[in-house]
Amino acid sequence: MAKNHVHTAFSLTEDNGNVRKFVAGEEVPRELVDHWYVKLHTGEAPTVDPGAEAAADELLAELEAKAKALDEREKALQDSQGILGSIREEQNAKALALSEREKAADQREADLNARAEVLDGREVAIANREKAAEAAGKDANQQGRRQGK
Q1: pTM for the full model?
Q2: Could you state, in order of their start, the residue ranges of all structural domains in the chain?
């Protein structure tokens, strides 16, 4: 059997300066087989077991089935991501609406507190007027009693 099967990739510079690159699994041309550097990187081609091809076909079929399953999972994940994106947008819109409601409630509370302060001030003023009126009435009664004596 010819020993021109490349088992390790290499580059060979020929006498004319041309650089030839060889990759593993490639066959070297017969005119270069006897070159000392080529011999370091070549050997007999591996023998192929007839059962290996059937096993390779089985493995290939298994890999194709797994690739199909992965594609289906990827599509399911993309669908789930789309659904999650929609839910996220919906939740963000709800959070924004809730934030606006909270701001409005805070403003209403501030307005009510301001009104309460105004009303408290009015109540104090009314209470002061009532006390003053009551005091004035007592003074008038006492002066009337003094004058009537």
Answers
A1: 0.41
A2: 1-47, 50-139
